Amino acid sequence: MTTAIYGVGAMGGAILDGLTAHGDGEVLAVARTPERATELRERYADRPAVEVVDASTAAARADVHLVVVKPYAVADLLAQVRDSLRPGSVVVSLALGVSLADLAAALPDGVAAVRGMPNTPARVGQGMTVLSPAADVTDEQLQLVRDVLVPTGATLVLPEAQQGAATAMSGSAPAYFYLVVEAMVDAGVAQGLSRSDALALAGQAARGAGAMLVETGAEAALLRAQVTSPGGSTAAALARLEAHGVRHALADAVAACAERAG
């Protein structure tokens, strides 16, 4: 299995790290400039599965193509590689706002198209990629994409119309949690903790809470109730958060993100 990654910035680099740290198969990394290509070769010198190549070489060799360039650059990239893409290969656009119709117009016949939205925890194998396949993508091709992405974390298949909501709930969501942890660390320092100790405590709390949600499948409200004694310290903290409108702020943030993501 050969996977090509076009665009190795923050998101593409996270996926590349996830694939090569935990996965099998060959990964072709495509960089925009010779300087970036040299940097990538040096960075991944200890990972023999990674080969840095030009876009046309990657297009001719790969089975799955992960397009992680900026949205405005997708059309030019696909125009550059379309004649080299092999029939039966799958192009997965992970660029925000690039629709399946956009991909269909840019790709040759016989090349499958999937729209996706990843998130940066892919770097440590804890990401989520939401996939929306075109109508002609076979079950086998979709499963191939999901198998490729296993080392980066989980995948979820949704209709394309729900990609905006998925971006708000997953693609951008790590930033919400980082903001919460950032605020908690600042509060912990104000209570006399060192910054490193406050980060260790808040970070582990976030990790543990996430694991509880995913591994138990329990509703968040139930898990919250289990650590909230009537009249206790947790109840006091939650009352303050509710008073400051945390629920409304999160709902407003998700709506704003979904609207922008389209």
Query: Structural class given helices, strands, pairing?
Result: alpha/beta
State the strand order across the main sheet. 3-2-1-4-5-6-7-8
Shape, per Cα inertia axes: elongated
Helices and strands, in order, run as EHEHEHEHEHEEHEHHHHHH
| Number of helical elements | 12
Terminal CA distance reads: 33 Å
How would a crystallographer describe the biggest sheet? 8 strands, mixed
Number of strands: 8
The CATH C-level class name of the largest domain: Alpha Beta
**CATH topology term of the largest domain:** Rossmann fold
The name of the CATH architecture of the largest domain is 3-Layer(aba) Sandwich
Quick structural gist:
This protein is an alpha/beta fold and 262 residues long. It has two domains: 158 residues, NAD(P)-binding Rossmann-like Domain (Rossmann fold), CATH 3.40.50; 89 residues, ProC C-terminal domain-like (ProC C-terminal domain-like fold, Orthogonal Bundle), CATH 1.10.3730.10.
